[in-house]
Amino acid sequence: MRVRWKIFGFLSAFAMLSYVQRTSLGVAAENIMPELHLSQMQIGWLNAAFATCYALAQLPGGVLGQRYGARLTYTLVGIVGIVATIATPVAPAVLAGTALFIALLAAQGLLGASQGPVFPMVAAVSETWFPQRQWAITNGMISLFMNIGGAITPLLIVVLTAHWGWQGALLWIAVPAVLLTIAWYAYGRDTPQQHPDVTPAELAELDPQAQGEPHAMTWSRLRGICVDRDVLLLAFSYLCFNYCFYLLSTWSFLYLVQVRQFDGLESGFAGMLPWIGASMK
Protein backbone atom coordinates (compact mmCIF):
# COMPACT_ATOMS: atom_id res chain seq x y z
CA MET A 1 0.00 0.00 0.00
CA ARG A 2 1.25 3.46 -0.87
CA VAL A 3 1.88 5.67 2.15
CA ARG A 4 -0.42 8.29 0.67
CA TRP A 5 -3.42 6.00 1.21
CA LYS A 6 -2.52 5.68 4.89
CA ILE A 7 -2.38 9.48 5.05
CA PHE A 8 -5.79 9.45 3.35
CA GLY A 9 -7.04 7.16 6.11
CA PHE A 10 -5.98 9.72 8.72
CA LEU A 11 -7.67 12.55 6.82
CA SER A 12 -10.86 10.52 6.55
CA ALA A 13 -10.77 9.75 10.27
CA PHE A 14 -10.30 13.42 11.17
CA ALA A 15 -13.21 14.37 8.91
CA MET A 16 -15.44 11.65 10.33
CA LEU A 17 -14.62 12.44 13.97
CA SER A 18 -15.09 16.17 13.39
CA TYR A 19 -18.69 15.46 12.40
CA VAL A 20 -19.19 13.13 15.34
CA GLN A 21 -18.01 15.91 17.66
CA ARG A 22 -20.10 18.65 16.10
CA THR A 23 -23.28 16.56 15.77
CA SER A 24 -23.22 15.08 19.26
CA LEU A 25 -24.64 18.18 20.96
CA GLY A 26 -27.76 18.17 18.76
CA VAL A 27 -28.38 14.51 19.63
CA ALA A 28 -27.62 14.86 23.34
CA ALA A 29 -29.77 18.02 23.57
CA GLU A 30 -32.84 15.88 24.30
CA ASN A 31 -31.27 15.03 27.68
CA ILE A 32 -29.23 18.19 28.18
CA MET A 33 -32.20 20.57 28.11
CA PRO A 34 -34.19 19.14 31.04
CA GLU A 35 -31.12 18.31 33.14
CA LEU A 36 -29.39 21.68 32.75
CA HIS A 37 -32.64 23.67 32.46
CA LEU A 38 -31.75 25.00 29.02
CA SER A 39 -34.34 26.10 26.49
CA GLN A 40 -34.36 25.06 22.87
CA MET A 41 -33.39 28.63 22.00
CA GLN A 42 -30.28 28.27 24.15
CA ILE A 43 -29.39 25.04 22.35
CA GLY A 44 -29.73 27.07 19.16
CA TRP A 45 -27.25 29.61 20.52
CA LEU A 46 -24.80 26.81 21.31
CA ASN A 47 -25.10 25.50 17.76
CA ALA A 48 -24.66 29.04 16.44
CA ALA A 49 -21.50 29.49 18.53
CA PHE A 50 -19.99 26.44 16.87
CA ALA A 51 -21.02 27.42 13.34
CA THR A 52 -19.88 31.05 13.71
CA CYS A 53 -16.43 30.21 15.08
CA TYR A 54 -16.08 27.40 12.55
CA ALA A 55 -16.80 29.77 9.66
CA LEU A 56 -14.49 32.49 10.99
CA ALA A 57 -11.65 30.00 11.51
CA GLN A 58 -11.70 28.61 7.96
CA LEU A 59 -9.44 31.19 6.33
CA PRO A 60 -6.96 31.73 9.17
CA GLY A 61 -6.96 27.98 9.78
CA GLY A 62 -5.97 27.33 6.18
CA VAL A 63 -3.26 30.01 6.31
CA LEU A 64 -1.83 28.62 9.56
CA GLY A 65 -1.97 25.12 8.12
CA GLN A 66 -0.02 26.28 5.09
CA ARG A 67 2.59 27.93 7.30
CA TYR A 68 3.07 25.21 9.92
CA GLY A 69 2.26 22.10 7.90
CA ALA A 70 -0.30 19.32 8.16
CA ARG A 71 1.43 17.35 10.93
CA LEU A 72 1.35 20.15 13.51
CA THR A 73 -1.99 21.56 12.32
CA TYR A 74 -3.94 18.32 12.65
CA THR A 75 -2.25 17.61 15.97
CA LEU A 76 -3.45 20.98 17.30
CA VAL A 77 -6.89 20.38 15.77
CA GLY A 78 -7.08 17.10 17.65
CA ILE A 79 -5.89 18.50 20.99
CA VAL A 80 -8.13 21.58 20.98
CA GLY A 81 -11.11 19.54 19.75
CA ILE A 82 -10.59 17.04 22.58
CA VAL A 83 -10.47 19.83 25.17
CA ALA A 84 -13.66 21.40 23.78
CA THR A 85 -15.45 18.04 23.62
CA ILE A 86 -14.58 17.21 27.22
CA ALA A 87 -15.44 20.71 28.46
CA THR A 88 -19.13 20.38 27.55
CA PRO A 89 -19.94 17.40 29.85
CA VAL A 90 -17.51 18.52 32.58
CA ALA A 91 -18.74 22.13 32.88
CA PRO A 92 -22.04 21.24 34.67
CA ALA A 93 -20.02 19.60 37.46
CA VAL A 94 -18.44 22.93 38.47
CA LEU A 95 -20.78 25.63 37.15
CA ALA A 96 -24.47 26.48 37.11
CA GLY A 97 -26.85 29.08 35.73
CA THR A 98 -25.52 31.84 33.52
CA ALA A 99 -21.89 30.88 34.16
CA LEU A 100 -22.60 27.37 32.90
CA PHE A 101 -24.29 28.62 29.75
CA ILE A 102 -21.37 30.95 28.99
CA ALA A 103 -18.95 28.05 29.52
CA LEU A 104 -20.96 25.88 27.13
CA LEU A 105 -20.95 28.68 24.55
CA ALA A 106 -17.17 28.97 24.90
CA ALA A 107 -16.72 25.20 24.55
CA GLN A 108 -18.82 25.06 21.37
CA GLY A 109 -17.04 28.10 19.96
CA LEU A 110 -13.67 26.51 20.72
CA LEU A 111 -14.79 23.29 19.05
CA GLY A 112 -15.81 25.24 15.95
CA ALA A 113 -12.52 27.14 15.84
CA SER A 114 -10.56 23.90 16.23
CA GLN A 115 -12.27 22.39 13.20
CA GLY A 116 -11.78 25.43 10.97
CA PRO A 117 -8.50 24.11 9.46
CA VAL A 118 -9.74 20.53 8.92
CA PHE A 119 -11.23 20.78 5.45
CA PRO A 120 -8.98 23.52 4.00
CA MET A 121 -6.06 21.27 4.92
CA VAL A 122 -7.74 18.24 3.33
CA ALA A 123 -7.42 19.92 -0.06
CA ALA A 124 -3.83 20.98 0.62
CA VAL A 125 -2.73 17.53 1.81
CA SER A 126 -4.45 15.83 -1.13
CA GLU A 127 -2.59 18.12 -3.53
CA THR A 128 0.74 17.38 -1.86
CA TRP A 129 0.39 13.64 -1.37
CA PHE A 130 -1.64 12.52 -4.39
CA PRO A 131 -1.18 12.77 -8.16
CA GLN A 132 -3.59 15.15 -9.83
CA ARG A 133 -5.70 12.32 -11.28
CA GLN A 134 -6.67 11.29 -7.73
CA TRP A 135 -7.51 14.71 -6.24
CA ALA A 136 -11.23 14.42 -7.01
CA ILE A 137 -11.62 10.90 -5.62
CA THR A 138 -9.76 11.70 -2.39
CA ASN A 139 -11.81 14.83 -1.69
CA GLY A 140 -15.04 13.04 -2.62
CA MET A 141 -14.28 10.06 -0.38
CA ILE A 142 -13.37 12.29 2.55
CA SER A 143 -16.72 14.06 2.13
CA LEU A 144 -18.35 10.62 2.28
CA PHE A 145 -16.57 9.83 5.55
CA MET A 146 -17.70 13.21 6.87
CA ASN A 147 -21.32 12.18 6.31
CA ILE A 148 -20.65 8.74 7.79
CA GLY A 149 -19.52 10.52 10.95
CA GLY A 150 -22.78 12.45 11.05
CA ALA A 151 -24.80 9.30 10.31
CA ILE A 152 -23.35 7.16 13.10
CA THR A 153 -23.58 9.88 15.75
CA PRO A 154 -27.32 9.63 16.58
CA LEU A 155 -27.17 5.88 17.17
CA LEU A 156 -23.80 6.14 18.94
CA ILE A 157 -24.95 8.86 21.36
CA VAL A 158 -28.26 7.09 22.03
CA VAL A 159 -26.50 3.82 22.92
CA LEU A 160 -23.79 5.50 25.02
CA THR A 161 -26.36 7.66 26.81
CA ALA A 162 -28.41 4.60 27.73
CA HIS A 163 -25.38 3.18 29.56
CA TRP A 164 -23.47 6.22 30.85
CA GLY A 165 -25.79 9.21 30.53
CA TRP A 166 -25.28 12.12 28.15
CA GLN A 167 -22.15 13.32 29.95
CA GLY A 168 -20.54 9.90 29.76
CA ALA A 169 -21.53 9.65 26.08
CA LEU A 170 -19.77 12.90 25.22
CA LEU A 171 -16.70 11.88 27.21
CA TRP A 172 -16.51 8.55 25.39
CA ILE A 173 -16.44 10.18 21.96
CA ALA A 174 -13.27 12.00 23.02
CA VAL A 175 -11.41 8.67 23.32
CA PRO A 176 -11.04 7.94 19.56
CA ALA A 177 -10.01 11.56 19.02
CA VAL A 178 -7.18 11.11 21.56
CA LEU A 179 -5.99 7.91 19.87
CA LEU A 180 -6.21 9.43 16.40
CA THR A 181 -4.27 12.55 17.40
CA ILE A 182 -1.45 10.54 18.96
CA ALA A 183 -1.26 8.19 15.97
CA TRP A 184 -1.23 11.11 13.50
CA TYR A 185 1.58 12.90 15.32
CA ALA A 186 3.62 9.69 15.31
CA TYR A 187 3.00 8.75 11.66
CA GLY A 188 1.95 11.86 9.73
CA ARG A 189 4.32 14.15 7.87
CA ASP A 190 3.88 17.39 5.94
CA THR A 191 5.19 16.07 2.62
CA PRO A 192 5.98 12.67 1.07
CA GLN A 193 9.67 13.59 0.96
CA GLN A 194 9.73 13.80 4.76
CA HIS A 195 8.19 10.38 5.35
CA PRO A 196 10.68 7.53 5.86
CA ASP A 197 8.35 4.91 4.37
CA VAL A 198 7.73 6.67 1.05
CA THR A 199 9.62 4.93 -1.76
CA PRO A 200 11.20 6.56 -4.82
CA ALA A 201 8.54 4.82 -6.92
CA GLU A 202 5.75 6.57 -5.00
CA LEU A 203 7.52 9.93 -5.27
CA ALA A 204 7.84 9.45 -9.02
CA GLU A 205 4.02 9.16 -9.30
CA LEU A 206 3.46 12.64 -7.89
CA ASP A 207 3.18 15.86 -9.87
CA PRO A 208 6.41 17.85 -9.55
CA GLN A 209 4.59 21.20 -9.61
CA ALA A 210 2.60 20.23 -6.51
CA GLN A 211 5.75 19.48 -4.50
CA GLY A 212 7.24 22.95 -4.42
CA GLU A 213 6.79 25.57 -1.73
CA PRO A 214 3.18 26.85 -1.69
CA HIS A 215 2.57 30.48 -2.55
CA ALA A 216 2.28 32.57 0.58
CA MET A 217 -1.14 34.11 1.25
CA THR A 218 -0.73 37.87 0.98
CA TRP A 219 -3.30 40.63 1.40
CA SER A 220 -3.22 41.33 -2.32
CA ARG A 221 -3.87 37.67 -3.17
CA LEU A 222 -6.65 37.51 -0.60
CA ARG A 223 -8.23 40.67 -2.01
CA GLY A 224 -8.08 39.21 -5.52
CA ILE A 225 -9.79 36.02 -4.36
CA CYS A 226 -12.53 37.90 -2.52
CA VAL A 227 -13.50 39.98 -5.56
CA ASP A 228 -13.26 37.18 -8.11
CA ARG A 229 -16.69 36.74 -9.74
CA ASP A 230 -16.49 32.95 -9.95
CA VAL A 231 -15.40 32.65 -6.32
CA LEU A 232 -18.27 34.87 -5.19
CA LEU A 233 -20.84 32.87 -7.16
CA LEU A 234 -19.51 29.58 -5.86
CA ALA A 235 -19.48 30.90 -2.30
CA PHE A 236 -23.09 32.09 -2.62
CA SER A 237 -24.25 28.76 -4.01
CA TYR A 238 -22.42 26.94 -1.23
CA LEU A 239 -24.03 29.24 1.33
CA CYS A 240 -27.51 28.38 0.03
CA PHE A 241 -26.74 24.67 0.04
CA ASN A 242 -25.25 24.71 3.53
CA TYR A 243 -28.18 26.64 4.99
CA CYS A 244 -30.35 23.61 4.26
CA PHE A 245 -27.61 21.16 5.23
CA TYR A 246 -26.96 22.74 8.63
CA LEU A 247 -30.66 23.16 9.33
CA LEU A 248 -31.28 19.45 8.83
CA SER A 249 -28.08 18.21 10.46
CA THR A 250 -28.59 20.39 13.55
CA TRP A 251 -32.30 19.97 14.22
CA SER A 252 -33.48 16.78 12.53
CA PHE A 253 -32.82 14.53 15.54
CA LEU A 254 -34.77 16.74 17.95
CA TYR A 255 -37.59 16.95 15.42
CA LEU A 256 -37.77 13.17 15.20
CA VAL A 257 -37.82 12.85 19.01
CA GLN A 258 -40.09 15.76 19.92
CA VAL A 259 -42.54 15.82 17.02
CA ARG A 260 -42.45 12.29 15.63
CA GLN A 261 -42.09 10.70 19.09
CA PHE A 262 -39.22 8.37 18.24
CA ASP A 263 -37.34 7.03 21.25
CA GLY A 264 -34.47 4.70 22.17
CA LEU A 265 -32.73 2.86 19.35
CA GLU A 266 -35.60 3.83 17.07
CA SER A 267 -34.54 7.49 17.30
CA GLY A 268 -30.90 6.56 16.70
CA PHE A 269 -31.67 4.69 13.50
CA ALA A 270 -34.12 7.36 12.30
CA GLY A 271 -31.52 10.05 12.99
CA MET A 272 -29.16 8.37 10.54
CA LEU A 273 -31.50 8.84 7.58
CA PRO A 274 -30.84 12.56 6.83
CA TRP A 275 -27.11 11.86 6.77
CA ILE A 276 -27.51 8.88 4.48
CA GLY A 277 -29.44 11.15 2.12
CA ALA A 278 -26.73 13.83 2.43
CA SER A 279 -24.02 11.32 1.47
CA MET A 280 -25.87 10.65 -1.79
CA LYS A 281 -26.04 14.33 -2.79
Features:
single chain; 281 residues; mainly alpha; Growth Hormone, Chain: A; 0% strand; globular
Task: Summarize the topology.
Layout lengths: L2 H34 L3 H55 L2 H19 L2 H12 L5 H38 L1 H14 L12 H5 L14 H8 L2 H30 L5 H16 L2
Helix pairs in contact: 1-2, 1-3, 1-4, 1-5, 1-6, 1-9, 2-3, 2-4, 2-5, 2-6, 4-5, 5-10, 9-10
How would you concisely characterize the structure shown here?
Helices cover 82% and strands 0% of the residues.
Q: What CATH architecture label applies?
A: Up-down Bundle
Give me the CATH superfamily.
MFS general substrate transporter like domains
Overall 3D geometry?
A: globular
Q: Give the CA-CA distance, first to last residue.
A: 30 Å
Kindly give the count of domains.
1
Strand content: under 5%
Q: Portion of residues in helices? A: over 70%
Largest sheet: none
CATH domain topology: Growth Hormone, Chain: A
Explain how this protein is built.
This protein has helices at residues 3-36, 40-94, 97-115, 118-129, 135-172, 174-187, 200-204, 219-226, 229-258, 264-279. With 281 residues, it is mainly α. It has one domain: MFS general substrate transporter like domains (Growth Hormone, Chain: A, Up-down Bundle), CATH 1.20.1250.20. The longest helix has 55 residues, at 40-94. The two termini are 30 Å apart.
